[in-house]
Specification:
By secondary structure, the chain is an alpha/beta fold. Helix content is 37%, strand content 19%. It has two domains: 3-245, Nucleotidyltransferase, domain 5 (2-Layer Sandwich); 334-432 and 478-507, ATPase, nucleotide binding domain (Nucleotidyltransferase, domain 5), CATH 3.30.420. The protein has helices spanning 46-58, 100-110, 119-128, 143-152, 159-162, 177-184, 196-199, 215-220, 237-244, 299-314, 321-332, 373-397, 417-426, 440-453, 460-468, 481-507, and strands spanning 3-9, 13-19, 25-32, 36-38, 41-43, 66-73, 79-81, 139-141, 156-158, 168-169, 174-175, 202-204, 235-236, 252-257, 261-266, 279-282, 288-294, 343-345, 362-364, 404-408, 430-432, 475-477.
């Protein structure tokens, strides 16, 4: 039996998932880690990348059967290296919200939204700040691109990952040449000893070979995998999420909900306007995608679950983490559709969609609000997707058609609850499959399988729909009108709460 291995360096877990020839997960391993806020930057130490990968891979069984593999990671961010691949400045992650001036200037220059998270925004902000390392840069890449290069010696990323670094021209499946020229002509850039194109990794599409595991790469993994294994192009968690949910064809989409939350909708036609709230990226095959990316999802909810678990233990109960989440999620279904006037803002970090550079988690209510556990926890879960809803409402105003959304990530592990609220928030049916809690690493394993098993001229969307997901059923929940009305009422108050959030950031 041949297997395919997907590796993903997520925000809270580094995970390895292997799949068999029937595309079913057969083994997995993981390692928990967390970002650090150091010197004004959200970062991870690169040494822990290798600790975590080895820990996750070591738990995968039958590693000798791996016939193809690939690496994915949290999208965006900034890793800058010199010619010898020495790191020039600590890794800057997608969580960083310090690139506002650069993102705004580039958005105006290109006539194309450049979010603060994108690699080019980080690079240009370093230029604007006059950081010393900009004179020594020879390579910039993402976390997935870095790991892929270290394991294969190939400096390349998949087109979906590349589309979170710099705008992509989907007609040629490469960086937009006109925008590259505009960047290089910027007054503060043109005197620097490099051209942007030379710094960026090569762009590859799904199904293209992207190197093999080298002897040096295998040594970095302590020999857990044998040299020679072919690699699929490195992808971001957005692209792997699309693959994992069969959401790469026009009018399909997916929502990934965990530490952060984002939706991906494959477009039939370009958007009419530039929206700061909407990223324009691509599928792993290069098709244009509207992405609503929000920094804050379940972190604050996780903190409240921890406090409520501590309360239970005070009275002698010893609920497991799984029991706590399940009971509290299910309890929220008893709450009012509008949460009874209880409001939650879950911003631990800043939020680009709502123009917040920092976050302060809040719970607010009027004296007459229905302050019950059900309403409180329903508001917690609404808060995880409220900022996403603001972005999805923009797509609705642009008349972007969505036939189906597939949910994946930790928010959907408890049946029905997250699906119901997400369907109401987005005004579209939401489907979850058995792999809903796996998401990215499973999607990366599927992309590795596509590399291994692709037929002549076969498209990714056909491979997924006709081979991987043919006959696969999932649970689908339609938007409930009462829940839709309640969520809309909640979001009107939520937008007003953001003024309180701004004040809290200023004074706390």
């Amino acid at each position: 039996m041949n297997t395919c291995l997907g590796l993903e360096l997520g925000s809270t877990r580094i995970k390895a998932v292997s799949i068999d020839e029937a595309f079913q997960p057969v083994s997995s391993g993981d390692y928990t880690w967390a970002s650090r806020f150091e010197n004004g930057v959200w970062t991870y130490p690169l040494e822990e990348v290798w600790t975590g990968l080895k820990a996750a891979i070591s738990k995968v069984e039958d590693r000798q059967t791996v016939a193809a593999m690939g690496v994915s990671a949290m999208m965006h961010g900034y890793l800058a290296f010199d010619r010898d691949w020495n790191l020039l400045t600590p890794f800057r992650t997608w969580q960083c919200t310090s690139t506002g001036p650069a993102a705004a200037e580039l958005t105006e220059l290109f006539g194309f939204n450049i979010p603060q998270r994108w690699s080019v925004a980080h690079l240009y902000q370093a230029v604007l700040n006059g950081e010393e390392h900009i004179f020594s840069i020879a390579h910039i890449t993402t976390l997935a691109g870095y790991v892929h290069h270290m394991l294969t010696g190939v400096n390349a990323v998949g087109v979906g990952e590349a589309s979170g670094m710099f705008p992509i021209d989907s007609a040629v499946l490469d960086y937009d040449a006109g925008m590259l020229a505009k960047f290089d002509a910027l007054e503060k850039v043109k005197g620097l000893p490099w051209k942007l194109r030379d710094l960026l990794p090569k762009v590859l599409t799904a199904g293209e070979p992207a190197g093999t595991l080298t002897e040096a790469g295998a040594a970095l993994l302590d020999g857990l995998l044998a040299p020679g294994i072919p690699f699929a192009p490195a992808e971001g968690d957005a692209g792997t999420g699309m693959a994992a949910t069969n959401a790469v064809a026009p009018r399909t989409g997916n929502v990934s909900a965990g530490t952060s939350i984002f939706s991906m909708v494959v477009l039939e036609k370009p958007l009419k306007k530039v929206h700061e709230e909407i990223d324009l990226v691509t599928t792993p095959a290069g098709a244009p995608v509207a992405m609503v990316h929000c920094n804050n999802c379940t972190n604050d909810t996780n903190a409240w679950v921890g406090v409520l678990g501590e309360t239970a233990r005070l009275f002698g109960a010893e609920p497991s983490a799984g029991e706590l989440y399940t009971k509290l999620y299910e309890k929220s279904l008893e709450g009012d559709p509008d949460c009874g006037g209880v409001l939650v803002c879950n911003y631990l970090a800043g939020e680009g969609v709502t123009h917040m550079d920092a976050g302060r988690p809040l719970v607010a209510r009027a004296p007459e609000s229905g302050f019950t556990l059900a309403n409180f926890f329903r508001a917690q879960l609404y808060s995880t997707m409220s900022t996403l809803k603001i972005g999805m409402d923009i797509l609705a105003a642009e008349r972007v058609a969505i036939d189906s959304l597939t949910g994946h990530g930790g928010l959907f592990k408890t049946p029905v609850v997250g699906q119901s609220y997400m369907a109401a928030a987005c005004g579209a049916p939401v489907t979850c499959m058995e792999t809903a809690g796996e998401g990215g690493p499973y999607g990366m394993a599927l992309l590795a399988s596509f590399l291994l098993n692709r037929g002549e001229g076969e498209r990714l969307e056909d491979f997924l729909s006709q081979k991987v997901f043919a006959g696969v059923s999932g649970s689908t929940i339609q938007p409930d009108p009462a829940c839709v009305e309640g969520f809309n009422a909640y979001i009107r108050r939520y937008k007003a709460l953001l003024e309180v959030e701004k004040t809290a950031v200023a004074v706390l």
